[in-house]
Amino acid sequence: MSESKIARVYATALYEAATEDGKVDEVRRDLGEFVQAADASEELRHLLATEEISDPKKKDILLELTEGGSELVRNLLRILVDKSRESEVAAIYRGFVDLVEQAEGLVHVEVVTAVPMPPEIQESLRAKIASSLGKTIELKLSVDKELLGGLRLRIGDRVADASVRHQLERLRELLISPMASLEGTVETAS
Questions:
Q1: pLDDT at 92
Q2: 8 within 8 A of 14, measured Cβ to Cβ
């Protein structure tokens, strides 16, 4: 099974357990803090990655580090050590957050424009997308001057490209296609 599928399986199991116990927010917070700590600490990353430390010792250290935290997160860390999947903890967290946001009806939309988008246009765009999808929208804005104008939206794996650059590329393709060169040479019979 691929790494992302493994992380998804663990994330789904964790989400279902947290939902059943009514502890989704607690698990999200505690697991997020653990992942942030791992990102910030070379020692913690080493602990998670090394095979030099025995599994029981690893579990003891992780349980000590998460003392007072969510029991579901602590159990997850124990299981990950038992299954030698410690390296998956960040991917599991991302998968867990995706499931929480999906359940909350939150959709992330990447918006790329040629120039910074004014706040009133951002709000108008957010409202139109929310109305269209029937979900809560969170915009992630960025600027790419190569678009020349217009915008490009990415919602999940779908892309809507309404940029000037994209329209010019499509026009160029039409102009150089074999049909375009033939159309100018065909005369109508009278």
A1: 96
A2: no
Is residue 34 within 8 Å of residue 112, measured between CB atoms?
no
Measured from the Cβ of residue 181, the count of other Cβ atoms closer than 10 Å reads: 10
- Ranges of residues in the chain whose predicted pLDDT is under 70: 1-3, 178-190
In tens, the pLDDT along 130-154 reads: 998 888 999 999 999 888 888 899 9
| Alpha-carbon gap, residue 152 to 102, rounded angstroms | 23
The bridge status of strand 136-143 relative to strand 150-155 is unpaired
Q: What is the pTM of this model?
A: 0.69
What string of H, E and C letters represents the secondary structure of the chain? CCHHHHHHHHHHHHHHHHHHHCCHHHHHHHHHHHHHHHHHCHHHHHHHHCCCCCHHHHHHHHHHHCCCCCHHHHHHHHHHHHCCCHHHHHHHHHHHHHHHHHHHCEEEEEEEECCCCCHHHHHHHHHHHHHHHCCEEEEEEEECHHHCCEEEEEECCEEEEEEHHHHHHHHHHHHHCHHHHHHCCCCCCC
The tokens for 42 are 């070379």
Q: Given this model, what pLDDT does residue 161 score?
A: 87
